């Protein structure tokens, strides 16, 4: 087949040219994203219910929602948390569930429950969790004068949002920090007493004045008109002139109350650099090229800056930096891989034409891969790019092996076409097997449970694509290019460089020494395994590699019933203080208004993002911030975390490491939890959210007094609502604008003053002090109420600072203590958490690795037609892993996702070298060599033949990775663990392929195989 192909060069070149053209077109149509469009199997139902306690939200809203949604299919877990004024139900499904159908079904169930919910509550919102829900950038709108925030809110809502949503590729602009307008009516209690007017009189008068008769038609002769009431309210003047008639007296509203436009009372706010601001989270469509979207956003913002000079526009938390790092890593891998392949080929073979062929084949393989990306529906993202980067190393290996083998055949005096044909056919089987063995390691990983398996799908598919394409290029294009470049090549025997001749001389000496004492040499090589095991025990384990970050997140819960204004003041005090190197800060204070908000918050909480000019400044300020908060507000709970990027948002979990859940019998008193918490047998645990309490004000209604003075309870409840809340009266409508009108009491007085200074007026006009009928007490009540499918529960949690540490170094022993405590107290309890999930994931991973090894064995057994030779290849892999771990330990790195990927790459290259070595030995033996002496010669000859490709592939890969170790920036920091594991594994693996594999082959063949 190879001879047929190279005999038609024009047809092959034209075919490849057409493929490249189509591939470029496909590349331009590929979506570019930070992450694959992952349909995370989770839904959340968010409930907003102002002025309502956690107990009321749990009983009246969350419990019915849980009971209804629990009947949905494929549900794995359902949990809810009720807080003051808000609630959240989170539903986790099995992976593979149709989330589009689940979303529709959940909304239908919520609709059917609406009749059971309180009328004044807004409809609960069903949210889907998706990887594209991560905002690509945050835009802050800050007026130069804080007093203009209301106008900035109107501009943002009516203009800026709509203009941003018109940018092609944006799917949603999610806003927080808007300030809304309302009309506030503040009665004068003294003048109301004089005129004997109550709040009900004011309320009724305003509502009567704002009625509109709709749908009424009247005739006027031959004409017909629609009737419209002329008494509708249109502005504050029309409200002030509303007449209130009491006992025949005519009084205008402005005589007993002030009417004004004001900012609506908010439950949340946003700050940028200590100033009130509005933030817009920009979310892109899954098919949008992020690298093209961000310039469009910045171009639009530059237009905004010209149009609105009194407003500043600032961007933060640009997530495209990770994608740019991935693309730059791929480009640098291609550049340095090609450059060093050129240099190594020239040094080893002394002919500049061979590196030139390599320089043509590498971009061709990469470009054609994008055509298959298009056919398989892959996007260009961090995961698929990492797969391409992995495949590039193996792609270079395939090209080097084929070129070297063809050139060696030519040096042996074979005709050009014969050399090309035999050079390809001789290594074809080994290269196909090496690709299959690499895929045997990657492909089973997609069967991992959870999001890891979903992510590995993109990576495994991209590796499979580029390796398959590289084989096609190596078997078709490379021999053709060799024929075209070397058509006039004159055979002068071997053209090895002086450098390679020196290496051959050193190899012969070491080979002779190893095979003179084979058993001693074998046990000497085994020494590396215990060193690798020791290093593995010293290495810390983490998810993603540590990055020298300049930003951080500060989460504060003040643990006090403070107002939003006090929270803002405290946050400005902490963030606003001058800090060395602080570039920017923004904070979401209280309850955020994001549409995609899937976590509960309270008015007493703050989430602040701080970005410094250097890692040193960041680390210096971490302790000072916490110390400042602890000294000024000792009750506050402060958590300082890494600023989340897309990976951490996707992989992070809110589940405790270990969670002890129990339920109280219906007859038990709630204070039983206090004694259970005190008697908990294991240190290190802390109270979960269900056991956190806060001080509540309890207004006790004195019913005996109500009966004594013949006052209806409804009258008292209405009075309390009027004076304690901004009571909604009606709406002022002007075209599409709707402005609420609220009745409010002066909020600059304390609760005691409000109760003491107000009266209740009966229907007969008799006034009584409000304090006669109510009594104020203070009580400790749960701040949150947690529940699952079985009902309300209480919990203790354990979250070590390093989740890889065992619970008190002996989790099994500690958990047995906890189980005994559960039995002793007669509790209905369960133990769960990330610790158990990790154990299950580890078992799944070990099982999948066993499947990978089995697949590896079957492929190699088919290639070698032997049951024992594949075991030699598998036996060599732990040596490469030990070398990788030793380099990680020496380099101060950790075991993480990137270092694990590096090990997979390294093992793929090691398997290639091992397969070629054993295949060459088998070819030598099949020539009639059968005796032990001839076996040694066959092994030595195979070592000489494969010395050049093994060294070239290893040295090329190692040199191509070296620049990452000396480079700086995010891309280099992410890639350093991968580089160290590949370099360490290849250094040891090269020695393994050159000496250990032939030595084990020799021992097994001589001692055990006849």
TrEMBL record:
Q: Which residues cross the membrane?
A: 12-30, 330-349, 356-376, 382-403, 435-457, 463-482, 519-539, 845-864, 871-891, 897-916, 950-972, 978-1004
**UniProt key word Transmembrane:** yes
Task: Provide this UniProt record's keywords sorted from A to Z.
Answer: Membrane, Transmembrane, Transmembrane helix
Q: Name one Pfam family in it.
A: ACR_tran
Protein name per its UniProtKB record:
Cation transporter
Organism (species): Marivirga lumbricoides
């Amino acid at each position: 087949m190879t001879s047929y192909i190279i005999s038609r060069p024009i047809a092959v070149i034209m075919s490849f040219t057409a493929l490249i053209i189509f591939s470029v077109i496909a590349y331009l149509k590929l979506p570019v994203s930070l992450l694959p469009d992952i349909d995370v199997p989770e839904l959340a139902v968010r409930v907003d219910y102002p002025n309502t306690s956690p107990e009321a939200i749990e009983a009246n809203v969350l419990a019915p929602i849980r009971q209804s949604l629990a009947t949905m299919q494929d549900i794995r877990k359902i949990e809810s948390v009720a807080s003051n004024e808000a609630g959240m139900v989170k539903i986790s499904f099995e992976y593979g569930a149709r989330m589009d159908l689940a979303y529709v079904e959940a909304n239908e169930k919520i609709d059917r429950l609406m009749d059971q919910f309180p009328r004044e509550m807004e409809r609960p919102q069903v949210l889907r969790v998706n990887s594209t829900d991560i905002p690509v950038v945050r835009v802050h709108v800050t007026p130069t004068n804080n007093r203009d925030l209301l106008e900035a809110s109107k501009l943002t809502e009516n203009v800026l949002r709509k203009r941003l949503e018109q940018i092609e590729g944006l799917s949603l602009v999610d806003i927080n920090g808007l300030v809304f307008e309302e009309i506030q009516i503040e009665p004068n209690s003294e003048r109301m007493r004089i005129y004997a007017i109550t709040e009900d009189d004011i309320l009724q008068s305003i509502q009567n004045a704002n009625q509109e008769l709709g749908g009424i038609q009247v005739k006027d002769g031959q004409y017909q008109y629609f009737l419209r009431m002329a008494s509708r309210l249109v502005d504050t003047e029309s409200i002030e002139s509303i007449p209130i008639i009491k006992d025949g007296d005519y009084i205008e509203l402005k005589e007993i109350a002030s009417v004004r436009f004001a900012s609506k009372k908010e439950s949340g706010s946003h700050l940028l650099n200590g100033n009130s601001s509005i933030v817009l989270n920009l979310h892109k469509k899954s098919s949008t090229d992020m690298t093209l979207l961000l310039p469009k956003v910045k171009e639009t913002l530059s237009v905004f800056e010209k149009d609105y000079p009194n407003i500043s526009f600032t961007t933060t938390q640009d997530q495209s930096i990770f994608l740019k790092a991935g693309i730059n890593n791929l480009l640098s891998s291609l550049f340095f891989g090609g450059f060093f392949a050129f240099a190594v080929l020239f040094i080893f073979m002394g002919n500049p034409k061979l590196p030139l062929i390599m320089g043509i084949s590498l971009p061709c393989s990469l470009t054609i891969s994008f055509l298959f990306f298009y056919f398989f529906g892959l996007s260009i993202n961090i995961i698929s790019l990492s797969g391409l980067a992995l495949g590039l190393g193996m792609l270079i290996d395939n090209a080097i092996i084929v070129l070297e083998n063809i050139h060696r055949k030519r040096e042996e005096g074979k005709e050009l076409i014969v050399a090309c044909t035999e050079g390809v056919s001789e290594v074809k089987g080994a290269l196909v097997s090496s690709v299959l063995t690499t895929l045997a390691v990657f492909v089973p990983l997609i069967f991992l449970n959870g999001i890891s398996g979903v992510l590995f799908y993109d990576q495994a598919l991209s590796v499979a694509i580029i390796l398959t394409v590289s084989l096609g290029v190596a078997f078709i294009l490379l021999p053709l290019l060799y024929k075209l470049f070397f058509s006039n090549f004159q055979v002068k025997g071997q053209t090895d460089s002086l450098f390679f001749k020196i290496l051959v001389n050193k190899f012969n000496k070491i080979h002779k020494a190893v095979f003179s004492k084979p058993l001693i040499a074998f046990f000497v090589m085994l020494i590396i395994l215990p060193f690798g095991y020791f290093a593995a025990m010293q290495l810390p384990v983490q998810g993603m590699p540590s990055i020298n970050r300049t930003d951080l997140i500060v989460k504060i819960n003040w643990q006090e019933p403070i107002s939003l204004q006090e929270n803002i003041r405290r946050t400005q005090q902490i963030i606003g203080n001058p800090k060395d190197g602080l570039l920017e800060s923004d904070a979401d204070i209280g309850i955020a208004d994001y549409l995609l908000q899937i976590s509960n918050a309270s008015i007493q909480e703050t989430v602040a993002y701080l970005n410094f000019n250097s890692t040193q400044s960041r680390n210096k300020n971490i302790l000072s911030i916490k110390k400042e908060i602890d000294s000024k507000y000792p009750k506050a709970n402060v958590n300082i975390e890494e600023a989340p990027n897309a990976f951490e948002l996707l992989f992070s979990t809110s589940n405790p490491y270990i969670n002890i859940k129990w339920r109280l019998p219906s007859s038990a008193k709630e204070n039983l939890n206090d004694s259970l918490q005190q008697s908990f047998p294991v240190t290190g645990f802390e109270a979960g959210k269900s056991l956190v309490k806060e001080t509540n004000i309890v207004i006790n209604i004195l019913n005996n007094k109500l009966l004594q003075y013949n006052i209806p309870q409804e009258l008292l409840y209405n009075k309390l609502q009027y004076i304690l809340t901004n009571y909604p009266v009606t709406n002022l409508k002007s075209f599409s604008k709707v402005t609420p009108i609220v009745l409010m009491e002066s909020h600059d007085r304390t609760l005691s003053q409000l109760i003491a200074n107000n009266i209740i007026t009966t229907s007969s006009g008799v006034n009584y002090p409000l304090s006669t009928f109510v009594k104020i007490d203070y009580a400790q009540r749960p701040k949150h109420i947690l529940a699952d499918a079985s009902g309300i529960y209480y919990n203790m949690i354990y979250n070590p600072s390093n989740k890889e540490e065992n619970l008190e170094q002996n989790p099994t022993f500690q958990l047995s203590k906890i189980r005994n405590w559960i039995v002793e107290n007669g509790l209905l309890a369960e133990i769960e958490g990330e610790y158990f999930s990790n154990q299950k994931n580890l078992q799944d991973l070990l099982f999948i690795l066993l499947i990978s090894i089995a697949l590896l064995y079957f492929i190699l057994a088919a290639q070698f037609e032997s049951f024992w030779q594949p075991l030699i290849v598998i036996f060599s892999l732990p040596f490469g892993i030990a070398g990788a771990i030793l380099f990680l330990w020496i380099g101060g790195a950790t075991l993480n996702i990137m270092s694990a990927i590096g090990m997979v790459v390294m093992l793929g290259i090691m398997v290639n070298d091992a397969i070629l070595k054993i295949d060459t030995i088998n070819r030598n033996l099949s020539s009639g060599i059968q005796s032990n002496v001839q076996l040694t010669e066959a092994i030595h000859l195979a070592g000489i033949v494969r010395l050049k490709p093994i060294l070239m592939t290893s040295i090329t890969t190692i040199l191509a990775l070296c620049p990452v170790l000396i480079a700086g920036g995010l891309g280099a920091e992410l890639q350093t663990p991968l580089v160290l594991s590949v370099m360490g594994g290849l250094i040891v693996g090269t020695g393994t392929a050159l000496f250990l594999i032939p030595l084990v082959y020799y021992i097994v063949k001589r001692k055990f195989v006849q």
